[in-house]
Every structure is written in structure tokens, then in C-alpha cells.
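User: My collaborator sent over this chain with a note saying "see what the structure looks like." That's all I know about it. Can you take a look?
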Amino acid sequence: MTLHEVQEHEAETEGDHEEEILEQPGAGQNPYPELMKDTSFTRCLLVTRAGEHTDSFSRCLLPLGHGFPLYSPVGNLTSRPQEHIKQGVSVGDVGLIDERGQFTYFFNVFLPTTHPRQGEVLPDFVPMPPLDRSVDLREESQYHPPGTVLVSKGVLTSYLSKSPMYIEFKIKAREGAVWIFPHGASREDLISTTRLHEYIKTHALTWYRHINTGLSQLYPNASLYVVTGCDKTNSWANLSSLVPVTVRYDGRKRAYWDANVEYVTSSINRDPNKYTDNCAVFIRGIRVAVNPTLWTKHLLGSRPPEQLAYCSILATPILGIRARIRTWQEDRKGRLPAAIPGQEPRPYHPLEFAAQLVLNDSPEAAIAIVDDYMWAAVADGEEGTYFRMVDQLIRLLEAFDVVLENDIATLKRKEPEPRHTAILAWLRSLLILALGVKRRARNAARAKVGQVLPGPGPRL
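Assistant: Without extra context I'll predict from the sequence alone. Here is the result:
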């Protein structure tokens, strides 16, 4: 049954369940109605300092536009089939990013139930037609050449030796991250992702109900990831720092980080083996969100959740005078908490908030689908702070239109404006400036973004 059919069925049977819901203890008695209007999505917690390495790592490297950076590329070795561990994250995998910064694998939409790489599927699972790699995928074996070094904003790189690699990183920002691929990394991407849309619409609600069965804290709306691309390697070194610091990567003999500093974590895969031959360092894909009304009825039973999922975003700059003042204050007075007691923040991904924007714009849609390629179009390599993220979401709305087709809401790139002669273009720009068209449009986009980021919730 599709989500559209579910909606029609609910309309027909609404009266049958209304009395039952009203009789449930506490139904409709929430003392914070504004906060609980929509509890399906991840909430934003504004913090003044970086608190978790997994959260900070994704915030730092997402602006590079390669996709979501996996803080733990190996992933869980106990909950996945052995064949999936050998192959690594692949196109068609359905899963999510957990609090440890690794991909939690559920199943693959292109593999039959009996395939050794297939995960735990639903009883009535029907896969999509299998992929033809030569036709359906775009592959590049050395997209990231050997010796690739990727750094976040505010990290200065000095090569003391290129071969073998011996590098000094001066992290001037209040948070920073580094990726090193000594052997390079490959890239694969699904050429057309629209072929997945109808399939996702048919099954999205069932998937969310399946993965959340028996959980007290639900995996939030828009957390499901359908992988459409990834970068893989068998050798890497990564580092996350929550303070300004200078560290060195030494690959001359036995590769290691000279980073024995508080608030700095690092990892290295020195010896490729059967578990690490195909580790995904970046993944790209589709984020799937279902209509909040359906979520409330089918996953919450029309009750508030026990806990709200949240991610943390820095409300203060990581570079400049204000950042240095904040660091000086912390050195003198100590570091304040940057997390909600008893809860781990989810790694931040802007597409979770983009999905909210899309559904807010098309509340009649059954699902929202947003793709990493959309975010890559506005990624600018800048810092991952709240103000930069707001600006990038505004630019996303300026570059894409929200469209609704067959109960699926998504983003479609705006058509380029027709070319004009130089004089006409100048007159047109002058008229737009005089009328304040762009300013009003940007203010409207800012108001939309403000509904979801930061949205309702606590501040630290």
C-alpha cells in the first residue's frame, strides 16, 4: 500500500479510531503544544563550543561538498553480513548515520532476499531491478589521487615531506578536521536517482515502522539514507580537534598522529585487510522524510515521544576575534556542557532540515526526497556554524524550487534566466535593486529556514 493509499484509508476510518485515541491516558494533554507540534524531526541544539567529535567531524567536512564524512569508516563488524563488510557501503544500501558517525546498514534495494550481502529485509520485500554497473553507475578508481589531504576551514597544512608523507597541521579554528588518503580513494555514483523515487514512496513509511519497532527513542524522520554514491579506500587517517592546536601526521615509518592532546581524537588504518579493503569515507544519497501527520499516527500512536532526537550546531564563530575571545574565556573559566544529559547528539546533516523545509512548503505531500547533490551545489568550503548553515539553506531555496509530483515533494534546480544584452541586463538588475525584489525573496527564504533551524528547542 502506498502512502497516498494510506492517507485515503485513514480518511475513511478516522471516526473508527477517534474515540479510542481520546480514551488513551494523556492523549491531547501535552503542556507544551508549540514545542510538540511536530516531534518527528531532529531538533537543533545551539551550543557555544564543540562537544562531540562525531558531530564536529561532520560539521567541519560537510561544507567540502563530497557527501557525508563517516567518522568511523569500518562501521559495525557484528551486525552486518560478512559479504557486506567485505564489499563496504554500496549504492542501493538503506541505512542511517548513528551517533558514532558510522553507517548502520539495514538492507539493499537492488539485491534479492537470498543474496549473501543482503541485510534483514521485511517479509514482503520486493527488490528493484538489479543494477547494471556498466550502464547505471559512474565510477572513477582514483577520484581522490594517492596522497590526498582534505582539511576543514581554518586548518593550515605544511608539508615537511611529501614522500613519505610527513605533514604538520595548524588548526587555528575552534574545531577542525582532517582526512588523509595515502593510497587515494575511488568514487561511484548512481547516474539517475529519480528511478528510486516511486519505490521509496511506496515503502518509506513501512521502512520507518520496521527500523523503529521496539525502540523507546525513535530514529527520527529524515534520518533514513538511501545510498546513491560513495568514496572508498583501504587506507586513511583522520583527525578531529575541538580546540586550536598543532599536530603532525608522520607516515615515514609506521604511520601515526603526533596528537596526544586533550580534545583531539584520531584514527589510522595502516594495514589493509579483509575488513578494510572497501571502507566508505564519504557517502552520498537520498534523505527520506514522511509526512509528519502519518508519522504521528503510525509511529507515535498520536502521543508525544519519550525523547527528542537532536544534533548540535555551533552558535559562535570558529575563527576571528569572537572565536579567540570565547577560547580565552574557556581557558579561564572552564568548558561548559555541550550536550543534553543522558542523550547523545546525532551527527548533523543539513538535508534533514532541508527535508523539513520541503514538507513545510508542500504539507499535502506523502514524502519528501532530498539528495546530497543538491547540498553539494551550495557547499562552499566554509565553517559549519549555525549562521553559515542558515545562509547555505537560504541559498539552497534560492537555487531550487520545491516541486510536488505524484505525492512526492522534492527540490528541482531553477531554470537559468534567458540571456540579455548588456544594457538590458543592467537595466533589469537596476529595476530589481530598486524594487527590493531580491531582498524580499531572501527575507522570505530566511523566514522559512528560521522555522526549522534552529526551530523550537533548548539552547546551551
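A starting point for your reply to your collaborator: Residues 23-452 form one domain.
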